UniProtKB/TrEMBL annotation:
Cellular component, GO annotation: plasma membrane
GO molecular function: ATP binding; ATP hydrolysis activity
Domain ABC transporter as annotated: residue spans: 8-257
Nucleotide-binding as UniProt keyword: yes
Protein name in UniProt: Amino acid/amide ABC transporter ATP-binding protein 1 (HAAT family)
Record's keyword terms, sorted: ATP-binding, Nucleotide-binding, Transport
A Pfam family per the record: BCA_ABC_TP_C
Length: 270
């Protein structure tokens, strides 16, 4: 995207669970302002890669740099404070809390009060800060068009709306880099179109760099700036969407050896 240093660099990352190699020598970088997608067949290592970036997993080898800083051994909450937010493949909302309260949780690390200054801060600036955070949350609620459910209990909502609330909570972190793990999974066509629009606007209007895992190849190829393909924990392609679509290794991974040889080169990977 530019000559500036990448926002995120993943260098020679490998991840092993027992005797299973989930990731092997993965290298890639993401520039500030990119919408970068990771695709691959089931079990390819996509979520494992996202978990390494977010700090949920620690790689067995390699380094992860965020804004030039080595974050390989930092905990998830420390990475969050540096500006990395994420959603999960399986919903991770507080189902007993309202939509508004779920989103407010995402603002927690931005609050300035602490154990030593809490009492004094409450008398001086807490109310003003509370208002600022609530205004920010209301902006997110308006952006994601969920005003009508702001007071609803999260566990009572439809699956599509809960996915939208989880995105709202991740956005509330005010991240420089947001990791989206299958944000459109289980949605109908209309819901997918809405979510794709939100992802584009987060990237273009809100200035968030996005790494997205998604199985809908139509969406991936339409909205991504670059695409990386994993297969059995190894990177087999990385480039512009149209370049990846033409890559024979990618077609083989998705369609099988014979199908890849016989496939129409203009047909989208399914």
């Amino acid at each position: 995207m530019s000559d500036a240093a990448p926002l995120l660099e993943v260098n020679d990352v490998s991840l092993v669970f027992g005797g299973v190699r989930a990731l092997t020598d993965i290298n890639f970088s993401v520039d500030r302002g990119e919408l970068f997608s990771i695709i691959g067949p089931n079990g390819a290592g996509k979520t494992s890669m996202l978990n390494c970036v977010s700090g949920r997993y620690s790689p067995n080898q390699g380094r992860i740099l965020f804004q030039g800083r080595d974050v390989t051994r930092l905990r998830p909450n420390q990475r969050c404070q540096l500006g990395i937010g994420r959603t999960f493949q399986n919903l991770a909302l507080f189902n007993h809390m309202t939509v508004l309260d779920n989103i407010m949780v995402g603002r927690h690390h931005l609050m300035r009060n602490n154990f030593l200054t809490g009492s004094l801060y409450w008398l001086t600036g807490a109310q003003r800060e509370e208002l600022d955070h609530r205004r920010a949350v209301e902006d997110i609620i308006d952006f994601l068009e969920i005003s009508h459910i702001r007071k609803a209990v999260a566990g009572t909502l439809s699956y599509g709306l809960r996915k939208r609330v989880e995105l709202a909570r991740a956005v509330a972190l005010k991240p420089d880099l947001i990791l989206l793990d299958e944000p459109m999974a289980g949605m109908n066509l209309e819901e997918k179109e809405d979510m794709a629009r939100y992802v584009i606007d987060l990237n273009e209007e809100w200035g968030m760099t996005v790494i997205m895992i998604e199985h809908d190849m139509g969406v991936v190829m339409d909205i991504s700036h670059r695409v990386m393909v994993l297969d059995f924990g190894k990177k087999i392609a990385d480039g512009l969407p149209e370049e990846v679509m033409r890559n024979e290794h990618v077609r083989t991974a998705y369609l099988g050896e014979e199908a890849a040889g016989d496939a129409d080169p203009n047909e989208r990977v399914a």
